[in-house]
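Design job #97: recover the sequence.
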């Protein structure tokens, strides 16, 4: 468990984006997302420019669009929510393909989809160009509370373990002839979820006892290197949010 390993979200490489310190990329991404959220939702051209900026980052980092698209599936719940807005929102209606949809709902759906997609793609690019350990060290160097960093560290380390446990339980159910069909299968799935929770809790207790026996004192390990990021690295990381800010200011000015 202590050895580092490549995660499915990380794409090893030696591009300029890969070489940037994690704390610089974290600050750059947060700044970019804040600018995107503050952009007027009717400035459609601005969101196209933001997408172009992320595309430029992907090209420089040599991250394939297919790699990003497969991992953007995490956004599906947001997409479903956005698609429901035109049907449930109030206000004037407009007919689209014979279906009466709310104008304000359509605009809200676009706003949610555009901003959420840009944030998700930016996060995927960050994960693809930064190793997990470097992200955690970057959070430490940004003076994030140690407890939050530890929670994130444990989540990253054991999320795959829990996912693998779910996969083995699914195989065991199928080996016994279980196939989920409608509400009748819900009790079985509920019991499986309960068993997974209990096993995860017990595993957490065993891991905690093992950590205590190895000298764990409740705090994160010290950062191995306290070397400050070079000014050039901060300037490079700031290019994305600064250009985005210029676009947002123009969008507000021409609104």
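Job complete. Output follows.
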């Amino acid at each position: 468990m202590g050895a580092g390993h490549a995660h499915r979200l990380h794409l090893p490489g030696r591009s300029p984006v890969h070489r940037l310190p994690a704390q610089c990329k974290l600050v750059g991404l947060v700044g970019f997302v804040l600018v995107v959220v503050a952009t007027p939702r009717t400035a459609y051209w601005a969101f196209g420019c933001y997408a172009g900026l992320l595309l430029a980052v992907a090209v420089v980092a040599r991250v394939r669009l297919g790699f990003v698209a497969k991992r953007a599936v995490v956004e599906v719940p947001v997409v479903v929510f956005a698609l429901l807005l035109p049907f449930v929102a109030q206000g004037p209606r407009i007919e689209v393909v014979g279906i009466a949809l709310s104008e304000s709902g359509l605009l809200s759906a676009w706003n949610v989809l555009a901003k959420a997609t840009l944030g998700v793609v930016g996060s995927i690019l960050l994960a693809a160009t930064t190793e997990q350990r470097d992200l955690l060290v970057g959070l430490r160097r940004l003076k994030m509370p140690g407890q939050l960093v530890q929670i994130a560290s444990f989540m990253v380390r054991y999320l795959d373990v829990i996912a693998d446990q779910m996969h083995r339980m699914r195989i065991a159910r199928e080996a016994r002839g279980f196939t989920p069909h409608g509400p009748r299968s819900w009790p079985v799935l509920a019991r499986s979820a309960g068993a997974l929770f209990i096993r995860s809790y017990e595993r957490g207790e065993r891991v905690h006892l093992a950590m205590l026996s190895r000298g764990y004192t409740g705090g994160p390990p010290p950062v191995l290197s306290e070397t400050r990021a070079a000014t050039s690295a901060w300037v490079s990381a700031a290019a994305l949010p600064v250009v985005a800010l210029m676009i947002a200011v123009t969008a507000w000015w021409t609104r």
